[in-house]
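Hmm, what's this shape?
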Amino acid sequence: MSTFFPKAGEIARKWYVVDASDQALGRLASKIALILMGKESPKYTPFLDTGDHVVVINADKIKITGMKSEQKAYHRYTGYPGGLRTEDYRKRLVRKPELIIEDAVKRMLPKTKLGTHMLSKLKVYRGDKHPHIAQKPEAKALA
């Protein structure tokens, strides 16, 4: 009995639309990461990208629980001495709410070239409109 490995032409990628309004950030991000990795598919293979595309709408209406809205901070380093930059959650939610979801999902994917390729299938938009109508995405409820 040999192990089945899907070929590149056998992987049929679907498109899903996920509404992020009033969803908890971490729970939403973990379910999106599973779809991007392809773990919901019976053809899942750890070293191949068998996942689907995900379009997230209403990123500005995401919710987080507890005191995180006052305490959560995002750090990045510029590469220069003294280059640590910090932005708190509330400022980022106003400035660019798409980055909040992208960061959460990115940290749940593999930290390899494969993970970068999986992340490229994630599209996040602030409002309820998106330019991917031609791909005929299915609405997916992540509850």
